Amino acid sequence: MTQDDHPNQACSNMLFAVVQEQDAEAAIQALNRLKLTITRLPSIGGFLGRRNVTLIVGLPCERAEDAQKALQKSCRQRVEYIPVSLESAPMPLTAPTPVTIGGATIFSVPVERFEEI
């Protein structure tokens, strides 16, 4: 079965949403309420090395904005403090530095063709 066999799927997108692990269940529930099928992959962030979840969602183009709004409501940003070394200090000292984490990073990729085999 190809995209051509799905007349209602003339335009399709693939969303990749990277969310913090603590927001993953809320994000999945929000997307499920929209009747979207989701694939969940565990992942680890590069900057802070925190656990994340990458959600993969295939959907028609006209539903992409709804999915983005659902993720925006269910994934919140928060401020955490990480220790940063003070280079000018005579002894090794660290100072707590605020870093904004969380929310969702969403990649939307147009799907030119897909097959179900």
Description:
With 117 residues, the chain is α+β, with helices and mostly antiparallel strands. The chain has one domain: Alpha-Beta Plaits, CATH 3.30.70. 18% of the residues lie in helices and 44% in strands. The protein contains two helices and six strands, in the order βαββαβββ. The protein has a four-stranded antiparallel beta sheet, covered by helices on one side. β4 (77-85) and β5 (94-102) form a beta hairpin. α1 runs antiparallel to α2. The mean pLDDT is 84.
What fold name goes in the CATH topology slot? Answer: Alpha-Beta Plaits
Q: Can you tell me the number of structural domains? A: 1
What's the CATH class label? Answer: Alpha Beta
Number of strands: 6
Question: Could you report the average pLDDT, rounded to the nearest whole number?
Answer: 84
Radius of gyration: 19 Å
Biggest beta-sheet profile:
4 strands, antiparallel
- The proportion of residues forming helix, as a percent range, comes to 10-25%
Counting DSSP H or I runs of 4 or more residues, the number of helices is 2
- What is the second-level CATH architecture? 2-Layer Sandwich
Low-confidence stretches: none
Proportion of beta-strand residues? 35-45%
Distance between the termini: 7 Å
| Overall geometric form | elongated
Structural class assignment: alpha+beta
Largest sheet strand order:
2-3-1-6
SSE pattern, N- to C-terminal: EHEEHEEE
Write the layout of secondary structure elements.
Blueprint: E1 12-20, H1 24-33, E2 38-44, E3 51-60, H2 64-74, E4 77-85, E5 94-102, E6 104-111
Helix pairs in contact: 1-2
